[in-house]
């Protein structure tokens, strides 16, 4: 079979590092090809080279057998290469059609011919089973549909080769199923797909072949048929990886967090958390499963004092925190690994060392009489860097320069080291690779074993099932069911998350 | 400003900008028929050539340091204080007013007058700080408007309150004056005064507060990332106000230096003095760090002072210095271009 894309011996250097060290990737026509690698392995760099955002130092790219030079994304578009980014590039206030035609609007005189555009969008949507309403506003549609708009955008521009960057990270299990169906339709229509991911299960499920990259070096390209997740994981990480998180049964004691009748409004002033009750006991991990946007963020922000509580109680060891400011809540014994590590977790331009004392800088020994003691701060930073295996040149390195996994380890180190009675972990492994995920899960379980309460919020069902001792399913601002991770399945959880109760007759159990 | 650049780039970019600015200035001189060597020689001798000129240059540097520190302090907390000019004016008038209104021994009177300048500047900056913190009104808009209010309010105060419908106030008495007979004799009777020591002390305070205290930690943290600061339990609004107040205090002190030192009185300003606005350029060129601001202020002082003598000695018009300054600022502001060229150069060398 012919190759539609060949990237041969691609080498891309950045000051101080080789991001791609002579990597070869060959995409056959009509296949789904996975690009697998840890964070910072060089996947995105390689795809950015293909998409024309970076120029390689060495190597050549062939499209349909012809040698090409891709100098900009426009060139890539002309060659029929389209990319669906992990973070959608859509204008929220525009309609689906307006977003799709943006930059190449069909004209009628000097006006945009929206009618024609809508018709064209509808046509493509029907053909590939994308089920997109061309007139809907982006702000009003679900994340899954936004992603389909991104797919439509590339198809509208005539893409034959589609690159997907971590497409399932933001989707619910049902949406993932739909996406996989879309993949199959695309292939049937003669398109080829490169899928960047570190989710091994997906690879096994949909991909034909996989290219594994480790630390900028192409390790191997193999047929997916006949491989196992374990095999792929060890290829990617370079050592044996265990998937099942080892843990003993939980031994919960007294209640640490007790939430009763909590109501919280979201930024638009709409009730996002509605009469929610939840308790987390010492020595257990409670996982909150739910589709994004069902009140998880607002719940966490309310507990940590970042959002005002409309009514209800949040008690930590019997003390009501609902009217406290963030600092008092932190000092009362709440640790928080925030969902967005760049926005909330770190001051990216601060040295990683300063970030390690972001909540404690005003305490002894880090400062005395309001004067910072940099020696102590650096000592603490060095300790955490060592203990939590944060890979950084030094504690003076800006947090921005660290890879996502190491940034996350730094945050976790900081929060765990404060030894909080309640540790809230929101999406703690988002975008991280197998090795880092394993490490973080171990740390969470360690906290539990030390008799602390852990509240885990995640959109990854596998993570919720693996790590939690109890799973609370959140839907529309309420906990609609508590299930036992040992007996539940992803299917059951998926249905619950979609708001339907499968066990008829069972009373609401909160 | 240069956070994404490495340490050597942070130093090289302003230095290269200055050199480029001087080169382009020389080309402009050549094109317009002047001799650049003569021009720059006149500039240098007019700013550093004689004791008198050195004294005048140092005097000129003093308010630039304060204005630069004021702009930079706010900037480090993520705020654009465009109102340094106005804060400087109210500081000027307040210090003169206190100088004239009281009759006290110098040990009390002078510090009191200086402090009045700082407090007035701080209060003037408090208003935009408060509006930003409470109502999210953008500080650039408010500080610009506050400049005009300051200008006309100060003129009113000088004419109708502090003086008797005059264009200038009386001279502040010796007990509230920064004038230094010692420096004046040393520099052949220039207007150099003790203010430069206060300016250098202010730069040290700037460094210590921002880099060494928990307050500075919070201010910088808020400047970089308000969300993370809030997450860490810092009071973002309080820090915004505090930053503006400290920034305004630096500006007000700069005004007090003019009021109690350079001039020794207040007068009706037909237009802005420009020192406050030049402070933006000083902060930018100095990379918002104390040592950089002192060097940038020194450069500005030398250029501005030398520009006065340049036409007399070489025929090159004063405005040429404005061109040089503008080009320096242009290159600093477009630092990406220089960083890019530096990178290219390094790659080429390899």
From TrEMBL, chain A:
Pfam families, A to Z: ABC_tran
Transport found in the keyword field: yes
InterPro entries on file: AAA+_ATPase, ABC_carbohydrate_import_ATPase, ABC_transporter-like_ATP-bd, ABC_transporter-like_CS, P-loop_NTPase
The family note in this entry says: Belongs to the ABC transporter superfamily.
Gene3D superfamilies, alphabetized? P-loop containing nucleotide triphosphate hydrolases (3.40.50.300)
Please state every residue range assigned to the domain named ABC transporter. Answer: 5-240, 257-501
How is this protein annotated for GO cellular component? plasma membrane
| Organism annotation | Jeotgalibacillus alimentarius
PROSITE patterns reported in the protein's UniProt record:
ABC_TRANSPORTER_1, ABC_TRANSPORTER_2
Domain of life of the native organism: Bacteria
Q: Does the keyword Cell membrane apply?
A: yes
Q: Per UniProt, which keywords does this protein have?
A: ATP-binding, Cell membrane, Membrane, Nucleotide-binding, Repeat, Translocase, Transport
**Location in the cell:** Cell membrane
Q: Which SUPFAM superfamilies match?
A: P-loop containing nucleoside triphosphate hydrolases (SSF52540)
Identification of the protein by name: Heme ABC transporter ATP-binding protein
Q: Name one GO molecular function term.
A: ATP hydrolysis activity
The membrane topology term of the UniProt record is: Peripheral membrane protein
Q: What is its main location?
A: membrane
Automatic annotation (TrEMBL), chain B:
The cross-references to InterPro entries, in alphabetical order and at most eight, read: ABC_transp_permease
Q: Name one Pfam family in it.
A: BPD_transp_2
One GO cellular component, as annotated: plasma membrane
This protein's record includes keyword Membrane: yes
Q: How does it sit in the membrane?
A: Multi-pass membrane protein
Protein location: Cell membrane
| Regions that span the bilayer | 12-37, 57-75, 82-102, 108-127, 139-158, 191-210, 240-257, 292-311, 323-342
**GO MF annotation list:** transmembrane transporter activity
Q: Which UniProt keywords apply?
A: Cell membrane, Membrane, Transmembrane, Transmembrane helix
Name the record gives this protein? Branched-chain amino acid ABC transporter permease
- What high-level taxonomic lineage is stated for the organism? Bacteria, Bacillati, Bacillota, Bacilli, Bacillales
């Amino acid at each position: 079979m012919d190759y539609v894309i060949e990237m041969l011996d691609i080498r891309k250097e950045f000051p101080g590092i080789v991001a791609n060290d002579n990597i070869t990737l060959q995409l056959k026509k009509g296949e789904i090809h996975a690009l697998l690698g840890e964070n910072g392995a060089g996947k995105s760099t390689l795809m950015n080279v293909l998409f024309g955002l970076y120029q390689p130092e060495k190597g050549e790219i062939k499209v349909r057998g012809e040698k090409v030079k891709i100098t900009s994304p426009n060139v890539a578009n002309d060659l029929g290469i389209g990319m669906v980014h992990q973070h959608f590039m859509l204008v929220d206030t525009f309609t689906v059609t307006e977003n799709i035609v943006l930059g190449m609007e069909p004209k009628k005189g000097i006006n945009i011919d929206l009618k024609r555009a809508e018709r064209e969008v509808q046509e493509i949507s029907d053909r590939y089973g994308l089920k997109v309403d061309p007139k809907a506003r982006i702000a009003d549609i679900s994340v899954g549909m936004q992603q389909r708009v991104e797919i439509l955008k590339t198809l509208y521009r005539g893409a034959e080769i589609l690159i997907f960057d971590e497409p399932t990270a933001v989707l619910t299990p049902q949406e993932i199923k739909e996406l996989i169906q879309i993949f199959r339709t695309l292939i049937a229509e003669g398109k080829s797909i490169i899928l960047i991911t570190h989710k091994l299960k997906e690879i096994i499920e949909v991909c034909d072949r996989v290219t594994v990259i480790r630390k900028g070096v192409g390790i191997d390209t193999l047929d997916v048929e006949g491989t196992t997740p374990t095999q792929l994981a060890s290829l990617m990480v370079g050592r044996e990886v265990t998937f099942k998180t080892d843990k003993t049964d939980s031994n919960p004691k007294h209640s640490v967090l007790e939430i009763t009748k909590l109501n919280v409004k979201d930024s638009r002033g709409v009730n996002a958390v509605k009469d929610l009750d939840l308790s987390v006991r010492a020595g257990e991990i409670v996982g909150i499963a739910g589709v994004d946007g069902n009140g998880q963020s607002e719940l966490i922000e309310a507990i940590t004092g970042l959002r005002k509580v409309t009514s209800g109680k949040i008690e930590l060891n019997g003390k009501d925190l609902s009217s406290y400011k963030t600092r008092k809540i932190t000092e009362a014994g709440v640790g928080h690994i925030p969902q967005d590590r760049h926005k909330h977790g770190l001051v990216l331009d601060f040295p990683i060392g300063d970030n390690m004392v972001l909540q404690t800088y005003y305490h002894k020994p880090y400062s005395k009489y309001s004067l910072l003691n940099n020696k102590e701060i650096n000592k603490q930073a060095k300790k955490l860097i060592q203990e939590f295996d944060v890979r950084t040149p030094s504690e003076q390195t800006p947090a921005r320069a660290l890879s996502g996994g190491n940034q996350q380890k730094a945050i976790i180190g900081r929060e765990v080291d404060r030894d909080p009675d309640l540790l809230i972990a929101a999406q703690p492994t988002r975008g991280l690779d197998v090795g880092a995920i394993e490490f973080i899960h171990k740390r969470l379980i360690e906290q539990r074993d030390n008799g602390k309460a852990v509240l885990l919020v995640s959109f990854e069902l596998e993570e919720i099932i693996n790590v939690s001792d109890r799973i609370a399913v959140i839907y529309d601002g309420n906990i609609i069911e508590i299930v036992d991770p040992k007996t539940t399945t992803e299917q059951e959880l998926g249905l619950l998350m979609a708001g339907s109760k499968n066990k008829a007759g069972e009373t609401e159990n909160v | 400003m240069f956070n994404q650049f490495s340490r050597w780039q942070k130093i090289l970019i302003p230095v290269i900008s200055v050199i480029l600015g001087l080169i382009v200035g020389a080309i402009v001189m050549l094109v317009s028929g002047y001799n650049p060597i003569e021009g720059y020689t006149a500039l240098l001798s007019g700013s550093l050539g004689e004791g008198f000129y050195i004294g005048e240059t140092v005097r000129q540097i003093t308010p630039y340091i304060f204005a630069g520190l004021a702009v930079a302090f706010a900037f480090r907390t993520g705020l654009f204080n465009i109102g340094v000019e106005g804060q400087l004016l109210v500081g000027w008038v307040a210090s003169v007013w206190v100088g004239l209104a009281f009759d006290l021994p110098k040990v009390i009177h002078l510090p009191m007058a200086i402090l009045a300048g700082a407090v007035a500047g701080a209060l003037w900056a408090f208003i935009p700080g408060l509006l930003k913190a409470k109502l999210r009104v953008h500080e650039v808009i408010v500080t610009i408007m506050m400049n005009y209010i300051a200008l006309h309010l100060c003129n009113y105060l000088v004419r109708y309150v502090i003086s008797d419908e005059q264009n200038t106030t009386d001279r502040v008495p010796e007990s509230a004056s920064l004038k230094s007979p010692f420096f004046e004799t040393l520099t052949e009777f220039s207007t150099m005064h003790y203010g430069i020591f206060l300016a250098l002390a202010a730069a040290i305070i700037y460094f210590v507060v921002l880099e060494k205290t928990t307050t500075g930690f919070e201010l910088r943290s808020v400047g970089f990332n308000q969300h993370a600061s809030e997450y860490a339990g810092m009071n973002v609004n309080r820090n915004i106000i505090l930053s503006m107040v400290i920034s305004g205090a630096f500006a007000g002190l700069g005004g007090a230096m003019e009021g109690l030192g350079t001039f020794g009185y207040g007068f009706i300003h037909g237009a802005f003095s420009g020192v406050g606005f030049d402070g933006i350029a000083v902060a930018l060129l100095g990379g918002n760090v104390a040592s950089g601001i002192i060097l940038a202020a020194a450069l500005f002082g030398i250029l501005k002072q030398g520009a006065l003598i340049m036409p007399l000695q070489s025929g090159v018009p004063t405005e040429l210095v404005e061109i040089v300054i503008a080009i320096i600022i242009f290159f600093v502001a477009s630092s990406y271009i220089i960083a890019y060229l530096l990178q290219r150069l390094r790659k080429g060398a390899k």
